[in-house]
Each structure stands twice: as structure tokens, then as C-alpha cells.
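Structure ticket #2291
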Amino acid sequence: MYLACRDAPWLRLAWAAANFGPIQSSKFLSSSSALQPFDRRPSLVVCTGDLVTAPDQTLRTAVRDYWDSHTLGKQYVRDRSLEPGTPEFFAHIRPWMNPYKFPWIMDRIEREAARLQGKHLLEIGCGMGFDSLEFLKRGVRVTATDLTPNAVALARKHFAVEGVRAEDVRVETVLSLSFPDETFDAVWANGVLHATGDTALAIRECRRVLKPGGRAIISHFYRKPSWMYWLNRYGRENIEYKEEDPPVNEFYTDREILDMFPGFAIEEAAREHHRALPVHRFGLKAALYRYGFRPLYNLIPSPLAKQLAYKLSVTAVKI
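Resolution: structure written out below.
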């Protein structure tokens, strides 16, 4: 998927925020509200993107192969002398991994870990294990899974480096999990489900393996309308890796996202990433972002910026 801006210089500036800028959150369903089953009315906005609704084996293989060769975090390595899987390697990329560069994610981990002490959490798409590591440090039992063998191998090394032990670290696809029904107290997925090719199926599988009353903690989905969606639709710059993007990266309206949670009570839905923060890129475009786009974009009044936030995170309880 491409965000392309070569014929519009101002879009090139804006694209940098898609690649780099973490932001704040806007909770439009309060976590303190009484839980209510989500209203399953038809979507109020028809999706106009090219959604993949039934991924065939070719697409699933393409998704797996892409992420096996583009493990999240490798794009942040500047010192190529570092050996992947060493303490120095993990320390080098740590500041740019999701729990640390996006403060609202660490807040969510701390909040959820406090209520999941001693309980069993499944992470979907663990990557190198940074999110799972934070749950393990806080007394949560974790089974960490990823679609790709490379990520699983790095996560195992990471846990060994940090002296923590997961219940299991294994290769799984969220589109067909091998776990029995009602196995876990919580499921955590961070920036994964919208990149599978069938987001609704992925959510159904999360629900299946949750115990009654279990928590689906999904950070995040890409949303539309948002500035990132517009850049994606009309641009040509890559989002994830400079040289190549994944085969699938879906955008949805808020209603379309919440409509994919039947059988859940929505506890919180938070719009996130609406303010631009520092970047891990270098060169002309990065300089334009730092000294041009970022200070100008952050002048946008907060209420408007929240309307343009490009991520929606959902916490829901199985009913």
C-alpha cells in the first residue's frame, strides 16, 4: 500500500506523520461507563476502500512472507554491526517500539496488567516481544504468538535476555488459531488485525478463544476519514518500510470497526495518533517533517485534530 505525494510537496510533508508521529488519544466511549452490548445497526458509512474480504491462500502466504522478512523494529536499526537478538540490539531499537514511542499504549498496558495479574493473556502478532515483555514484567501470564518464524525466534531471545518466561511463544495465524475455545482471559493485538486480509474473521477468532467476560484489547485499527487515509488513497509513499509495504493495510470508519465486534460489550473506543511527535528518519523528507510539517500540523486545534486521528483502539468484553 502506498502513500504518494511526488506531485504534491505538501503531501510529502504530511506523509512523514504517517510514518513517524505518535500522538495523544481521544476516548469517545468512556471506560468508566456501564458496559452495553454494541448496537449492531448497519454501517452508516459505506467503505470505499479496496477491502480484502476473503483472503485466499496466495494472499495469506504473501502477508506471512512480507512480515517474515520485515519484522517490525528492524527498520529502526542504524548500527548494522549489531547482531539481531543480542541485548545491545534490543536496547538500540527499544525507544522506537510501540509501547515506548506511543505513550497511550504503555498507559493501556499498565491499566490492563493491573486487572490481569496472574491471568492468561494471548498476544496476537508479538513481533520481537516488546508488548508481551511489559505484561510479563507486571505479573501477567502471556502466550505470545506471531505469524512468522523470524519474529517468534527474536521474541524468544528477547525474553531470555530480559530473564522472563512466557507460557508459550509460537507461530500462529489469527485467522485460524489452534487454541481451544475459551482458553484466555484476554487477547492483546497491537497494529495487527487490519493487516491480515480479513479483520472481521480475526476478531471472531479472538472472541472464540476468550473466556466469557474475557477482554479483547485491540490497539489499533487504521481509520477513515483521517489524514493518513487521504495520504494513502492519493499518495505513493510507503507506510511501514521505506522500500516496500505489506500486501494488506485496511482503513475503516469508526462504525465499520465497531460493527465487527458482535458478541462483545464495547468498554472503550479511543481515537489516537492525532499529534505529531519525533521521528526516526533522516534526510530531506525527515528534515521537512521536523522543521516544517510537525510544528505546523500541531497548531491545528485539538478538537479538529482528533477528528483526523488515524487510529482507533478498542477494548471490548466478551458477552
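Closing remark: The domain at 2-318 is CATH 3.40.50.150 (Rossmann fold).
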